[in-house]
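Support request, please re-run this one:
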Amino acid sequence: MSNILKVSGIVLSVYPLGENDKNLTILTKERGKIQVVSRGCRRTSHPLFAASNEYVYGEFVIAEGRVMKYLNSAEIHMSFSNLRESFESICYSSYFCELASYFTMEGQEEKDILNLLYLTFLALGKKLLPYPLIRRIFELKILQCHGMGIQSFFCVHCGKTEKLRYFSFEEGGVICDDCRQIAEGREIDPQVLYVLQFLGSCRINEIYSFTLKDEIFLEFEWIVKRFFKTHVEHRFRSEQMLEMV
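Re-run finished. Output below.
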């Protein structure tokens, strides 16, 4: 006998299964990342056709069997269909979904990353910021959600909060003038430090509320890109698609 589970979440990925079914990966607030079979949904007349697509946000009623989970019904709150209208938005959306899948697991609450992904889709769809800036903000925040955020408020060596002029990728944060003598660090622009501090302390719904001058963005992007690759060794398939954009 199946247990019935009601969850809210976003469909991260979809793969064909047989002739008419799909296998969905859904990031849920209540149960983390789960695999669900949506039976018969590849037929356009099927009630689950619209809900069984990437980027759909809604509530899903799932039957838990002994081996598999099956989608019984769904209520769509936001389809984010506009993200599937251009190659560029598809590439970025796929990348964000792949990161969300990598940093989450089944059986644990994933409210923070789900909220981050939802707000990121809104920012992409409305083109609130340039896509490259959205990408670096997302990378920074998902690391923070995972407990790997940048320490930008005090020196990672001595704890001082003043004269924070250097940044260490290996140690994951800023270094003060005094500790620069015993630790390697790259000088950081004060405006970039402010951006890092803002993103490290602001509310989640404020992360896409600003833009940056080109020269500030280039340094911010370089720092986030190198920091991310220093602490995440995994190579994401969708990242190769972004290189073609």
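The chain has two domains: 3-79, 86-150+182-242. The chain has six helices and eight strands.
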